[in-house]
Amino acid sequence: MRKFLLLVAASISIEAGFTQKTDKRLDGLDTFITRVLNEWKAAGVSVAIVEKNKVILAKGFGYKDYENKVPATENTLFAIGSCTKAFTAALLSFPMKEGKLDLDKPVNQYLPELRFIDDELTNNVTARDMMSHRTGLPRHDLAWYGAPTRRDSLLYNIRFFEKTAPLRRLWQYNNFMFLAQGVLAEKLSGKPWETLVKEQFFTPLGMTTSNTSMNDHVKAPDYSFGYNEKDGKVVKMKFANIDAIGPAGSINSNAKDMANWVMMWINGGKFNGKEVIPALYFNQAISSQMIISGGLPTKEQPDVFFSNYGLGWFLANYRGHYRVEHGGNIDGFSTSTSFFPTDSIGIFVSVNQNGSAIPSIIRNTIADRLLNLKAKDWQRIQRSAYEKNMAAAKEKQKADSSMRKLGTKPSHALTDYTGTYTADGYGSIVIEQTKDGLSAQYNALTFKAKHYHFNYFSFVPVEEGMDADENDALKGQFAINIKGEIESLSLPLEASVKDIVFKKQAVTIDVSKADLEKYVGEYELPGPTIVKVYIKDDNTLMVLVPGQPDYELLAVKPDLFNFKILPGFSVKFDKDENGNISALNFVQPNGTFKAKRKQ
Q: pTM, whole model, 2 decimals?
């Protein structure tokens, strides 16, 4: 949906940081980082390097505010995105140590509110499964991104998500599973996730300026904006408030604070000699819990191989050295937090550029220097990979464009496509008609809906900071029921499962109890079968057909009601010459069936 390169016109050479004794292994690093920022046209970056119990660099480069050319410093807060996951997973080490949690028992025993799409998952998924992304669920990210909902509501929605693999069969990254870990930690402790992170990590590690919400980020005295490129210009992206799914990625931090976080990890879970993370958990967190892929060496990178996942950490062989790392991406920011436990080295890099390659370029270059490895041109390697990806994207765009059938028209007038469409777990999409056509609002995302072909429409994001066009927009299909009405909208919101079907909600009208009383009574179908119409709770009209459940009816027009849970089914009441209700008609896909009112 988005392209991830930030292009800026101006050269960047400004640096800021506190005075530190220069380590000879870092000679020329400032110049290198400045060149990387210039070549990738990025605004600013925050870098921390730790060795054993010593911070050898904590510094800001470039700008935290590109428009006003305000420098980034070692104190400038950046959104670290999914680097938050290691914090959340580690919170479970405390109830684990206290005997309140067994990572290998079904998590439903501790958190019965968590349910999955089938009993096999509900009854067997463990905390360890959630911590290592092996539950069988794919990402389903657009079900939470920008959703104006509460944490417990997002947890509830998990039960509706389609799985794509059996339990523990396939590694699939999933933010909802870290949301669930945060809720589990809250339930076991009786404290909010935000409080736990502060008490267990921020305070003992001296992370005095870090926070857990974008609301707090923008109130801080030193924070960075996030950026993206659009039409060759730098545009400031909207901050993404992801508090609801915060345990998966809402921490904001800086070089100075994150230096202490990685220092604790390279010292076996201790900081200043005091245990912060229990040793039993520490060892498991940085040990392989799930294979991601074979991670086979390539011709270009024969000494970078194996790809596994621990508990909130990616694990890999990096040129013969054991590396623990996690990336983080959220609107306008890209981050990498890494450490080499057997080498006692930690590296933090965060850039205010959307979906950027810069963190890996700087991280790997620093690692090569500190590990005394032969230098590699990671800048060239990443640029080559980027250009290949861009070329592949263009080829895909061409292939997609060739499928379009020109000269077609939608089956209905545009106004017929407007309305509210809902899907379990994914919420609602509201489609409205504008002077330019159709627009759609889905959570925090706004789309322009443009006709593609037949009843397919392209949904193009139009939010500030996005640069998608019609070629990489979502393609949604409107479906029609037997009565010729627009019934649903299917959108490919999760690539690995069937399109998500949003059902169009009928526009209802208010009907007084006195008017509803006119329809109450018994109606006779051929057979004979007696149908009963009655009022429930003073304002709800119900219909009962023998042998079937009671159905709730929704008034959509005078004398016309839709079945609430049966799309395409409705009841239409007939009147006689005196205006009295004389019959009802079941209008359904296989025909219309009339029942006369009994006198």
A: 0.87
First-residue to last-residue Cα distance in the chain: 61
User: For residue range 289-330, what is the model confidence (pLDDT) as tens digits?
Assistant: 999 998 888 888 888 889 999 999 999 999 999 999 999 999
- For the chain, list the domains and their CATH numbers: 15-391 (3.40.710.10), 414-504 (2.40.128.600), 513-597 (2.40.128.50)
Contacts of 116 (CB under 8 A, 6+ apart): 122, 125, 135, 137, 158, 159, 161, 163
Give the whole-angstrom CA distance, residue 219 versus residue 214. 9
Residue 2 has a pLDDT of 41
pLDDT digits (tens, 9 = 90+) for 11-38: 333 344 444 557 899 999 999 999 999 9
Q: Decide if 598 contacts 521 (C-beta within 8 A).
A: yes
Query: What percent of the chain shows pLDDT beyond 70?
Result: 94
Structure tokens given for 472: 């990489």
CA dihedral 400, 405, 408, 412 (to 10 degrees): -40
Query: Number of C-alpha atoms within 13 angstroms, CB side, residue 582?
Result: 7
Give Rg (Cα) of the chain: 29
488 forms bridges with which residues in the sheet?
479, 503
| Contact of 312 with 131, CB cutoff 8 Å | yes
Q: 516: which 2 tokens?
A: 């509803």
CA proximity to 14, closest of 27, 33, 1, 28: 33
